[in-house]
Design goal:
Strand content: 5-15%
Number of helices: 10
Strand order of the largest sheet: 5-4-3-2-1-9
Oligomer: single chain
Length: 217
């Protein structure tokens, strides 16, 4: 199963900023216990590469990706640390090209028709729709899918996706998965709320499994 097939199976990718690698394994265990064995560790902190490396080496059952890849140095650090996929908030053709040369599964960000066309021209078929909420949410996303869906492009909306609208996003044809920033917040991690994180994962899995809405804390 390819990385993108795994992402499509999980449906939700926890998007996480980590301040310290010391919390990497307790967080990984919470995700695994909750039945959502995937994480996008963002390069918004200096700890990102160390967290990715620790999770990848010591919790191999967890599919670990790197987010907020803004530079070629970020990209190299992600690959060297063992990330299995990368995500960016925007579309940078130089980073896309470098990722392709490394055979590294990469999801660039888009929010306009011009972005989508530039990404398709570079051979990208999995795109992050970001910031989803600020750019019009499902209304805008469906407007993008309408003219481009036939190309086979799929989207991973992130930013503004919440427990209240997750079901609607996942029910939209052309959405491969959603980025979930609420699953493991900085406060949760700082307070070591591992059971809270595991519980949110279980609620997401329940929603995906039963095709119904659930109340999420």
């Amino acid at each position: 199963m390819s990385v993108f097939e795994q992402i499509a199976q999980f449906k939700v990718v926890p998007v996480i900023a980590m301040e310290s690698p010391g919390a990497a394994l307790p967080l990984a265990d919470a995700l695994l216990e909750g039945g959502l064995p995937i994480a996008e560790i963002t390069f918004r902190t200096e700890a990102a590469a160390a967290v990715i490396r620790k999770m990848s080496q010591e919790r191999p059952a967890l599919l670990v990706g790197a987010g907020t890849i803004l530079t070629l140095d970020n990209l190299k650090a992600a690959v060297d640390s063992g990330a299995k996929f990368g995500v960016a908030p925007g579309f940078n053709p130089k980073i896309v090209e470098a990722a392709q040369q490394m055979h590294f599964p990469f999801v660039p960000g888009v929010c306009t028709p011009s972005d989508v066309e530039a990404a398709l021209f570079c051979g990208c078929k999995i795109l992050k729709f970001f910031p989803a909420g600020a750019m019009g949410g499902l209304t805008m996303l469906k407007s993008l899918i309408a003219p481009y869906g036939h190309t086979g492009v799929q989207f991973m909306p992130t930013g503004g996706v919440s427990p209240d609208n997750l079901g609607e996003y996942l029910a939209t044809k052309g959405v491969i998965a959603c980025g979930g920033t609420w699953i493991a917040t900085k406060d949760d991690i700082a307070e070591e709320q591992w059971e809270r994180i595991a519980s949110r994962c279980r609620e997401v899995v329940s929603l995906i499994t039963h095709k119904g809405r659930v109340a999420m804390s």
